[in-house]
Amino acid sequence: MKLLGISGTIVGSKTAIAVEKALETVNRSHSEVQTELLDLRQYDLQFCDGRNPSDYTGDTRKVIDIVSSADLYLIGTPIFQSSITGVLKNLFDLVPVDALYNKVMGFIATGGTYQHYLVVENQLKPIAGYFRAFVAPSYVYLHDDHFNPEKKIVDPDVLQRIDKLAHEVVFMHQRLKA
């Protein structure tokens, strides 16, 4: 089984750090799970223009294939202007609807205010619902205060919640596919 962690931004590093931390938890505890990080900073995605996903080429085609081939997901985004990033929304627009059908998703968000955690409830969960994906009950929101100046996650409660989310996503996938 393949767990894909997605860092849904092309700027900054805190979101990728948080998603990588969750993938590390899975790697330590679930040897049956293959993990991969899709860091959108490393790809040049075209804007979705309504064509068939199979008609895209280059990095866009590669990313669509990577997302489509995964079995479960940990999706991270920073919150900008009280919303998910445009690059993550574009990724959701590019991926075929059936690619995420009945797959488990967990969400990690980062931001500079404590109110932005609501974006998970008000934007990410409805998008998952559109894809008919299963959503882990837990999610993790990390504020800038949860990182030290070297961008290491230092809040023990947040680290515990990341571990819980990582286990929850794998557990849900295993039970739903049994």
Q: What would you note in describing this structure?
A:
- GO terms for molecular function: oxidoreductase activity.
- This is NADH-dependent FMN reductase.
- The chain is α/β, with parallel strands linked by helices and about 180 residues long.
- Strands 2-1-3-4-5 form a five-stranded parallel β-sheet, with helices on both faces.
- Helices cover about 40% and strands about 20% of the residues.
- Helix 1 packs across helix 5.
Helix content: 40-55%
Q: What CATH architecture would you give?
A: 3-Layer(aba) Sandwich
In one word, what is the shape?
globular
What fraction of residues sit in β-strands?
Answer: 15-25%
Structural class: alpha/beta
Which fold name is given in CATH as the topology?
A: Rossmann fold
Mean pLDDT: 96
Helix count equals 5
First-to-last CA distance: 13 Å
- Count of spatially separate domains: 1
Name its key features.
single chain, 178 residues, alpha/beta, Rossmann fold, 5-stranded parallel beta sheet, 5 strands, 21% strand
Please outline what is shown here.
The chain has a single domain (2-177), classed as Flavodoxin domain (Rossmann fold), CATH 3.40.50. It contains five helices and five strands; from the N terminus they run βαβαβαβαβα.
Helix-strand blueprint:
Blueprint: E1 2-7, H1 14-29, E2 34-39, H2 58-69, E3 72-78, H3 86-94, E4 104-111, H4 118-130, E5 134-143, H5 156-177
Helix pairs in contact: 1-5
